[in-house]
Fold Sulphur transport domain-containing protein.
Amino acid sequence: MDRRDWLVICTGLLIGVLAALLVKWGNPQNMGFCIACFLRDIAGGLGLHRAGIVQYLRPEIPGLVLGATLAALIGREFKSKGGSGTIIRFLLGIFMMIGALVFLGCPLRMLLRLGGGDLNALLGLAGFVVGIVAGIEFLKRGFNLGRAQTGSLAAALIMPLVSVVIILLVIYKPLFNAEVGGPIFTSAKGPGSLFAPLAISLAAGLIVGFLAQRARLCLSGGIRDYALTKDTYLLKGYGAIFVGVLIANLILGYFNLGFVDQPVAHTDGVWNFMGMALVGLAGILAGGCPLRQLIMSGQGDTDGGITVLGMVAGAAIAHNFMLASSPAGPTPYGKIVVIIGLIICAGIGWVCREA
C-alpha cells in the first residue's frame, strides 16, 4: 500500500473510533455520527419540523463543514464553483434524506450500525449497492447535470458562514417567546435529548471534516469507483471505519449482534433495503453521498451546498408528512414516497443524458 492508502485507512479508523466515543460521551447509541440524523435534528432544532424527540442543533455538522473548509484552505482547494443542475440537485437531496429516514440512517450510520452488531443494516447495505449500480448504468449512458461554473467568493462562503451561525445559536440559545419556545428547540426526550458536550461534538466535527476532505471520503463514490475501474481506495476507508467502530464498540460494551432490540432502528428488511436503494441512486446522480455533499459545501462547492439544503428540506418534509420511520417500522406514507422517489430519480437519470 502507498501513502495515499494509509491516509484513507488511518482516517477511517479514527472516524470509527471517534463515532463510538461520541456515544460514550452522550450521543445516541449506534449514532455517534450520522449525517442524515444530525441534519434532521438541526431541521427540528430550527423549528422546520415539530417532531419533538428529534430536535437539537448538532454541533458535529457545522464542525464538519468548517473542518472541510480549513482542510481545503490549507490544501489550496477552496474555490467557488457550481450551477450544475441546481434545482435537480435540491430535489435529489430531498429524496436522499427521505430514503435515509425510512432506513433510519445515512451510509455512514449504516456502517456504524453494522459495527454495533445491527444486522438490519445488512439489508440497507444491499439496497445501497443496488441503488448505486442503477445509478452507474445511467452514468454509462451519458447522465450529466452539466458543467459547474466558477462562482464568486461570496457564494463559496455561504455554507461555512451558515455553520458559524448554527454554532452561535447552539452556544447562546436565543429565546424569542417564553410561552411557545423558539426559535431554537431542543428535545426533552428521545434521540434529540442525547448529545455529547458542545466542545467535544464541535471538535469531533472539525476532525472528521478535515480528515474526510483530505481523504476524499465518499461511500457511494467508493462503490462506484470499484464497479467502474476496480479502484478500492475509498472502500478501504469505509472498511476502516467499520473496523474502527467495531473494535471500539467491543471494548466499550456497545456491541449487540442481532436484528431485534437495536437502537433507533426497525426490522422491516424490505424497507431498509428500499430506503437505502433510494439513497444510493440519488447519491450517484448528485455526485456523492450525504457526507461527501457536506464536505464539498465546506470547500466552496455550491452544488454540494444546494444538495445539503435539499437534505434539510427533505428532513422537514419527512417528519411533517409522516414519511420518516420509527423503531416500530416505516409508515405507509414513507413507503409510497420511497417508490415515487425511485421513479423520479430514475427519470432524472434517463432524461439528463448527453446527446
About this structure: The radius of gyration is 19 Å.
